[in-house]
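User: Some background: our group keeps a shared notebook of sequences we're curious about, and every so often someone picks one and asks for a predicted structure to add to the entry. Today it's my turn. The entry only has the sequence so far, pasted here. Could you supply the structure so I can complete it?
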Amino acid sequence: MHVPHLLGDSFICEPPKILDLEGGFRFHHGDLVAPFTIVYETYGELAADRSNAVLVCHALSPGPHVAGRYSRDDAKPGWWDGMVGYGKGIDLAQHFVVCVNFPGSPWGSTAPNSMNPATGRPYGSTYPWFAVEDMVESQRIVAEHLGISRWKAVAGSSLGGMQALMWAAMHPERVGALICMAAAAAVPVTGVAWHLIGRKLVESDPAFHRGDYYDAAPGSDAMLRGLQLARMVGHMTYLSGAAMEAKFGRRRRGGTRQFEVDSYLEYQGQKFATTYDANSYIRGQAAMDEMDLTEQFGSLEAAFAKFRGATLLVSFDTDWLFPATEIGRLSDHMRRAGVPVHHLAISTPNGHDAFLLDYPLIVPAVRELLERA
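Assistant: Of course. Here's the predicted structure to add to the notebook entry:
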């Protein structure tokens, strides 16, 4: 029996796991990258009948490290530690949680910054433009590897929530329940526009070199300034007007003419650009924008026609990226398709990022859904 090593309100988790695909990975648009590595993490104990497995899908910027700390010296736990853990919304005393680093993400799986064995250089601009279907396929491959034929639930938020919806549409018989937060069946056009601005900022940076920038000197002032600016634009879609007013207002920094919000955005952009990969960023955003279940299946009713799992959709009234009206519309279509869906509409000043902050408002509904599932 698995005995957890608790650490305060978190726990010590196992290191990431590696699945090597010698035959490579075939992308949705036809490209083959071989060999190919998929990195994933697991938490909790898998039941003998494999009935307690929950797939958590990560969003654009985080990776597969969902919860826990690798050691007691870690500065921070996984990105959804407030939701996944012992006694939390997705309770590891009852569930076995899997999170797969999707193809193209820079957190371990083969990505644009990985070495191409055929050239001895990073893939860079030659790396395929991936789709949400590729994320789902990598998760399906890991499920097969672990002997999991059906997930008790698939959960995700933002891009992770879009993956969860894609699972229900592509593999309805393999999903017992669905948890989707701050996401929809397609990115609204305003979100697409913000994403396009961010991608154009990256691509117009002279240091980007059309995606083949890995030989540039580390720490160069010109290095990935476009990615820093793109992250600033992206960060604006994660916050709400009320949150920004409360946090910054029109305050200046230390008696200077610089606004506090300027300093904050510069910090966020620089921090992101030192850890994330620009090729991964523009491809991940493009994958979000490309997904459209209505376009792919003809209608949302057709997309979910064969799915009957209990579904929890969570929206936040200050979310600019995925407005609550979009999630409400998705809920209506799923209900007309025969899906038992509950739309939890939450009022919060925390914007799109509320799924990382408002755990007291979200956890009870998640726990209730998993108990029913």
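Suggested note for the entry: Residues 191-286 form a domain with the Rna Polymerase Sigma Factor; Chain: A fold (CATH 1.10.1740.110). The CA atoms of residues 188 and 270 lie 28 Å apart.
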